[in-house]
Design a protein that fits this description.
Layout: H1 7-28, H2 40-47, H3 51-63, E1 67-69, E2 75-77, E3 82-83, E4 86-87, H4 88-104, H5 112-121, E5 126-131, H6 134-148, E6 151-156, H7 158-161, H8 165-169, H9 174-177, E7 181-185, H10 189-198, E8 203-206, H11 210-220, E9 225-229, H12 233-242, E10 249-253, H13 257-261, E11 270-271, H14 273-278, H15 296-316
Parallel strand pairs: 5-6, 5-7, 7-8, 9-10, 9-11
Antiparallel strand pairs: 1-2, 3-4
Length: about 325
């Protein structure tokens, strides 16, 4: 039976989620000093907690100097000590805590960068991403490569679903055999999950970042959202994710360059990496979401695997046989 988180643990998780959202928003330019943050009710509805938990989380962040609570006016991004646009005060606290923990493990500050490199780059960690379309696979592989340093390759889940039982039992496909772990979405857990278990491969089921979903929802309430695709199932997935709020999504094929060229150059769009490669050299409107969409929970799971495989390689004393 799964243990339910204690109230203190729930508060800490909520505080961490809000802290990460605000800092990321400041760094990306989504939030400026003095901007109003989501209301208590909005956070409570999104996180599935009561208003008192949100109040405690915002109060903790106010104590850190990250936000300013102005009574009934709301919660706002506080003035930050900054150098070159970097949030110095919070970053200093975070890194000081990390280096303090490292010192307790007898890792000296000058040795810490090399220690991190060994834990994350001692060996090439490979994964295979399964999803429905080339659009989705390219987006997943791109983020896993750029954000985490994995060697990510893609595979269409339809090739698994269409295989006969005999074909599935014939053995581990070569691309999968060479992978350290597999990745898919909740949509395809039923297909990929049993095969990952049969092939004795760890499986990470990716969940999307709530902030990215919220930004999509906020936009389509008042605006049309062009989605540039290679496979029409990609905008269909977007509509499913938005669950009743996707009627404003306008599907635009990357193969129709005239339709792409006719888009309003000032109106944000969503485009998959695969569609962007197809349109190489074609001027495109700004992106509504220009960054990662993997949730913090999924990122933590991925980072855990990255470190685990690297530590195993270090313990073995050699990375031979994995290259």
């Amino acid at each position: 039976m799964t243990r339910r988180p204690r109230p203190r643990e729930r508060d800490e998780r909520l505080c961490s989620m809000l802290r990460a959202r605000i800092i990321a928003g400041i760094h990306s330019g989504q939030y400026d000093i003095g901007d109003r943050l989501p209301t208590y009710r909005e956070i409570a509805a999104e996180a599935g907690v009561d208003l008192r938990a949100v109040a405690r989380a915002y109060a903790a962040l106010e104590g850190e100097g990250l936000v300013e609570v102005r009574g009934r006016s709301g919660v706002f991004v506080a003035q930050q000590e900054s150098i070159g646009g970097t949030v110095l005060a919070e970053t200093s606290r975070w890194l000081s805590a990390v280096l303090g923990e490292a010192r307790l493990r007898r890792i000296r500050v000058p040795d810490f960068p090399e220690f991190v490199r060994h834990c994350t780059q001692s060996t090439e960690v490979r994964c295979v991403c399964f999803d429905e379309t080339e659009d989705q696979v390219s987006a997943l592989c791109g983020e896993l490569s750029t954000e985490f340093g994995f060697r990510a390759t893609g595979a269409l889940v339809g090739s698994l679903a269409s295989a006969s039982g005999a074909e599935r039992n014939r053995g581990v496909p070569k691309g999968v055999r060479d992978a350290d772990f597999l990745v898919t979405s909740l949509y395809h857990l039923g297909t990929v999950g049993p095969l990952a278990e049969r092939w004795h491969k760890p499986l990470v089921v990716i969940r999307l970042c709530p902030d990215a979903i919220r930004r999509l929802r906020d936009w389509v309430r008042d605006h049309e959202l062009p989605v540039i695709y290679l496979d029409p199932r990609f905008p269909d997935r977007m509509r499913a994710i938005l669950d009743g709020e996707g009627e404003r999504i306008r599907a635009v094929s990357a193969r129709d360059r005239k339709a792409v060229a006719a888009l309003d150059p000032d109106q944000p769009v969503v485009i998959s990496p695969a569609a962007r490669r197809k349109l190489d050299g074609v001027p495109l409107p700004p992106l509504l979401i220009d960054g990662g969409v993997i949730s913090n929970d999924s990122a933590a799971e991925l980072i855990d695997l990255l470190i685990r495989f690297n530590l195993e390689a270090m313990q073995a004393g050699s990375t031979e046989g994995r290259g």
